[in-house]
Amino acid sequence: VESLNAADVANWIRRAAELVAADTERLTRLDAAIGDGDHGHNLDRGFRAAVAALPDDAPPGRTLIAAGRAVVSKTGGASGPLYGTALRRAGKALGDAADVDAAAFGTALRAALEGVQDLGKAVEGDKTMVDALAPAAAAYEAALGDGADLAGCARAAADAAARGAEATIPMQARKGRASYLGPRSVGHMDPGACSTGLVLRALAEIVGG
Ligand code: ADP
Ligand code: MG
Ligand code: MG
């Protein structure tokens, strides 16, 4: 795929919802270790709502904004506003273009990260979803700079997000509920970083990466 149209973006949200549904118990177990054990169910509910809210005939940007709005309204916890903001900011960055090429999607991914950081104030190393999303955006941009196509960029982002999630295991949480545990948050993967890896894996899958 050279670019994403509205149907591709809708398929991305559907695939993300499937991967979240399949890993709901795992995400909830991760959150039980360092939080309150609801991340899987929060996100499963949110992405189901996003799928239900996908517009029939809207450009990619508006499709993401609709998905983000549904996620905010239906996802409990800290992750709802954070994921919702990420999707809405990405959608806004795409504007009303009918097709999104690799460069435009990179801009949207960067905007999503900035939205999460504006809202949650987390930086890399705080053991949050930022530890998956920030390296994903950087890897996407690096791949783009190396001349990779959309699939190559998406694969680089998904791989970096997965590595970023793994890298949260030895971190001590400094943001969100897990930070209340202090040093006891060490030794567990951050659930939001894990789910961010799933959402980017879904992207790589639908563009053929
Ligand atoms: P809650 O903690 O309210 O129960 P969830 O369990 O759904 O919400 O989501 C927890 C995840 O949210 C964490 O694993 C982390 O990745 C993310 N998170 C929490 N606070 C922040 C923040 N300030 N910035 C970025 N991500 C955060
Ligand atoms: Mg939780
Ligand atoms: Mg909660």
Automatic annotation (TrEMBL):
Where is the DhaL domain positioned along the sequence? 7-205
Tell whether Transferase is among the UniProt keywords. yes
Q: Which GO terms describe its biological process?
A: glycerol catabolic process
Q: Give the encoding gene's name.
A: dhaL
What Pfam families does the record tag this protein with? Dak2
Record keywords: Kinase, Transferase
Which SUPFAM superfamilies does the entry mention?
A: DhaL-like
Q: Name one GO cellular component term.
A: cytosol
Gene Ontology molecular functions: glycerone kinase activity
Q: What is this protein called?
A: Dihydroxyacetone kinase subunit L
InterPro entries, alphabetized: DhaK_L_YcgS, DhaL_dom, DhaL_dom_sf, Dihydroxyacetone_Kinase
